[in-house]
Amino acid sequence: MINPKEIKNAVREMTDELIKIRRYLHANPELSFEESNTSHYISTLLYEWGIDHKSGIGGYGIVGVLEGKNPDKKIIALRADMDALPIQELNAVDYKSLNEGVMHACGHDVHMTCLLGALKYLNQNLGKFEGSIKFIFQPAEEMLPGGAIKMIEEGVLENPKPELIIAQHVFPELEAGKLGFKSGIYMASSDEINLKVIGRGGHAAIPERYDYTVMAASKIMVKLYEVVQDEKPKDFPSVLAFGEFLAKGAYNVIPSEVNISGTFRTFNEDWRRKFQSLIIEISTQVANEFNCLAEVNIKKGYPVLVNNKAVTEASKEFSKEIAGDGNVEELKIRTTVEDFARFAEIVPACFYRLGIANKEKGIVSNLHTNTFNVDESAIETGVATMIWLAVSHLSK
Fold it and tell me: What are the pLDDT digits (tens) for 381-392?
């Protein structure tokens, strides 16, 4: 029977190899829907380790199954994401990104490394656990519509269907060696809002000959913001933020078109659907007041991420056995979003956090920043935790 001590010792022996893998992935990042070389690299390693799999799922995704004793007894899944972000890295490290303007600033290089390390160990110990472990390397987590939905449409959660699915994500708010869990609602839904106000442009000094598109667009933004503040559910926060307002006029030129872009995030799917309708209704109404037209394009994003209570509470207790009681913390909800929510809608799920910060070493940068990095000692914790959660859930 596999035990925490055995896992830790085995992972420690793999540490140099795992760091080498992580650094290669970090130096060779690829954007969403472009992860061709990343997929090839992962596939090559898996074949070298004798792990059968299929690639090209939902784009550049990879899926496979490790079968232990009595493989049909119970089936669980482990998932890691693969894509990077359009950020120019500023870290002065030997493994700095070689791809101009592309960086693993969200830690997906660590996620892939941890899953690879877990798979290597588990494949070497198939006779020590019962059941099967499906593994999923998912592309395009960072860009809508996301890679999860494409993989799901191509049957990644079928044949065999897992009873539960687990994923981990780096977290710079926790020191390396620590883990974080949150049962129930954890991360928000997201929608991208694109508004266009159209009217007659003209000379600012002759108001009877133009439609005040800029004022109409401004009033729409203010009105939508006020509605969110007044009508949002009280139990969880909602965020409406506009980051782009393009009115290409001049001091005395009123443009014929104004474009606005923003994001809407919430934890309540009913309220989400209601506000989507209100965006259209209010934008149309306000635009008409200024004799303008409003074009509304809402790109519906990821759903609310809900961690299954039973799976997450069990995972939290299991993790204490591998990381220690004092290294497992309770998390708060976050208005950030995660494509893993697509899997969690279908299969009971646990999405937990891996601490990667080290204040003494100056590793404190936030996710999605050009100086983001990790304390690589966290890789040992990440790999060992994934292994232990997998075998513990299979034996439960």
Answer: 999 999 999 999
